[in-house]
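Message: Just now I want nothing more than another pair of eyes on a protein record. I am handing you a single protein, as its sequence and its fold in token form. As I understand it, each token names a local backbone shape. Take your time, and here it is.
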Amino acid sequence: MTFLSAEILWRRLQERALVEGDMPLPAHADSPWYVRAMLGIAGWIGALFLLGFVGAGFYFVMDNAAAAVTLAALCCGAAYAIFRMAPDKDVATQFALAVSMAGQGLFMIGMNEAFGTAAASAWLACAAFELALALLLPNFVHRVVASAAAAIALALALNRLELGMLVPALLGAGMAMAWLEPRRWAGRGTLWRPLGYGWVLAVLVVELIERFGWFRVFRHSYDAVWWAVPQWLLAWSGWIAAVLVGIVLVGAVAHLLRDTGVSLVSGSGLAALGAAVLVALVSVPAPGLATAMLILLLGFACGNRVLMGLGICALLGFLSHFYYALNVTLLVKSGILAASGVMLLGARSLANNISPHDSGAEAAADAAASIDFGNAEGSHA
């Protein structure tokens, strides 16, 4: 896969009469992504110190929901003003990020005081608040953090309502919609790009929470709801969640095939869809693989190295967790991984042989076969 520079992309758009004139110069030089990541970490540290200061000096704020929410609104309002007045100053934006995160922490404390610790209503209110901040505050790192926090809060709320099995698929579908719709990026790329990254981080965090059983920390008991989820359904919730994520993965592959002009009923299309279905089936006993493959596929389709790196790391991590978990024997795990790798390599070879000049089919097959490295490693062990 090739990654186009801005100049080459502009030239190709000119050749198709989609743009005219010289390529516009960037309004300002953006900081590299790793600098933004470090600023986000520094913002978290600063927010913890601010919360500690408020807790030590104004202890009554922590025990009063109205006071906590009011102070949270003031902090977020101050952060909004700083982002607007000094958007290009790293020191100012870092301070605003810390102030806003402290405000978000105060809002969560206020909601827990108002609705009760870990109540679904508190998490839903936090999700709505975080989403509003992600939409309103014009800062890349802040939007990534706020959108991830909104998705995680929504996941915790649904988990309290006995609907946790829907969370990975919902987040995966939102992530796919954000990255696979180029028309959104044309006019609102500064909004959708950080939202897309935030939802990717959120779905990885939720998968990690589920894999290591950390949801039990937040689920001492379910909230009272008017519906009653059968106990057998809750017992199979992990498998149901994996199946739903697999459906999202197959849908994303079908969307990419249509965008690249490959018929779904052609040999190449059926091979790519078959590979996606196989990954979805493997993900049922090995949860997380479909999510990792979805992230890797989105990164491959968008030419985004960051997403591809996250997808590869997640893929290796979930494969390792599956292989070293104690739910089934190592022999069974090795057989599953080895058979999956052979079948995926066969699907890739079939797609390339059926339509060797079809770039869309080749891209879909390459993305699906990228799981083979992890499978070969697992089967060798």
Observations:
- The longest helix spans residues 182-211.
- The radius of gyration is 23 Å.
